[in-house]
Structure formats: structure tokens, C-alpha cells
Amino acid sequence: MTNKGFPKFGMSQAGSFVAALKNYNLPDFILELVAKECKSDLHERGRIDDRLQSMNVQALNFLHSIFVDCEVDKAGRFAQYRFYAYVSSMYHKCEVLINEIIPGISGKNHKIPVAVKSNGMYIAVAFNKATGNPVTQKETTKFYSIVDDIKKGDHGAQLTDAIYSSSVGFKGDALVQLEKLSKSRKKDAENKLDFKTANFENNIYSVIKC
């Protein structure tokens, strides 16, 4: 099965991209996001290699740059896609939503980079810093307050995980502050929240604090 949109000179390159990418367990929503961004076709169903072959060369090159070469771009778009895939890999068979608006008990609507739902209920939220300076104490404090506000609201009953990942590292006091805030929470099941931080280094995510 081939994509008739491939120019002849691009077929061998596209084939090598497909061969490499099919070994990555890329979530459906990642393929859909990239197809939309690159104005590419994408088969709705089928094996991963068939779905990849239905995409145009631009989309395959984009995916290869992100996941195989782990390239870094100034805007941080590649890092964001890797972050989406990382969070998705932690929650199999769950619904992963990008830039989800979730209200908190304060009445404020929070734009969440990645939210995870299971059986229609939010179970996790995740933030990422792709570019710039290491994450600061101010940023982790804001992250905590947003998650706490959502947890206390109507949509937070099943929320148990909050993840902050970074491609630019964390300042020491940022991690200390988040751990301090996390430990200050009540220990009962109703208020339980598991805060995690993760670094993207050497082409892999590593949890650095739980």
C-alpha cells in the first residue's frame, strides 16, 4: 500500500521513515495532529505501518525529526510532541486531550496542556516547559495552585496525578517548593494527589521527583 501523493524521488526516503517510525508506539492522536499540521492524508484504521504509509513525506519527515532524531527547534514544537507521547505512554487505553479547558473551584477556567480521562473522568493533568530557562520556584508554585484548584472543583474528584516535565531542567528550589507543597496536603484519599516531575535528557524522559 503506497500513497499516490509521493513523488517518485521521495519513495525510498518515505519508506525508510516508515520503517523507523513503525517501531515507535505512536498514539493515534499524535498521528492525527501531525497529519493536520502537515495537511496530510491519514488512514483512520489499520496497522501502524499502513497508517504511516498513508501520510505524505512532509508528515513523515516531521515525525522522524521529533521521535527518531529527537531534534530541537527554537519554538519547542518538537519537544511538545514528545511530551504528548510521553504522557500518553503512561496511561494506556485512556483518552488524552490537548489544551483542555478545566474549571477549578475558584471558577477560573484553566488551560491544561495535557489532560487524561478514564471512563469520562479526569485522572491526570500534565504541564511541560519546552524552551527557555530551567523551571523556577514561581512556576512550580503556580502549577501546584492550578492543580489544587481543579482537584477541589467539580471535575477533580478522580484526579490523582499531576506531572510537570521539562526539556530545560528544574532549579533546585523549584523542586523543593513543589515537594513541600505536596507534603502539606491532607493524607486522606479524597485529597490525594501524586505530583511528579520529569526531565527530558539524552533523548529520554526520566522522573526526578515523586
How would you explain this protein's 3D organization?
This protein has 210 residues and is α/β, with parallel strands linked by helices. 39% of the residues lie in helices and 23% in strands. It contains seven helices and six strands. The chain has helices at 11-21, 28-37, 48-53, 57-68, 77-90, 137-152, 172-183; strands at residues 95-103, 109-118, 121-129, 161-166, 194-201, 204-209. The protein has a six-stranded mixed β-sheet with strand order 1-2-3-4-5-6, with helices on both faces. Strand 3, helix 6 and strand 4 (161-166) form a beta-alpha-beta unit. Helix 6 runs parallel beside helix 7. The radius of gyration is 19 Å and the shape is globular.
What percentage of the residues does DSSP assign to strands (E)? Answer: 15-25%
Q: N- to C-terminal separation?
A: 45 Å
The helix fraction, in percent, is 25-40%
Sheet/helix structural class: alpha/beta
- How would you spell out the order of helices and strands? HHHHHEEEHEHEE
Q: Describe the largest sheet.
A: 6 strands, mixed
Number of helices: 7
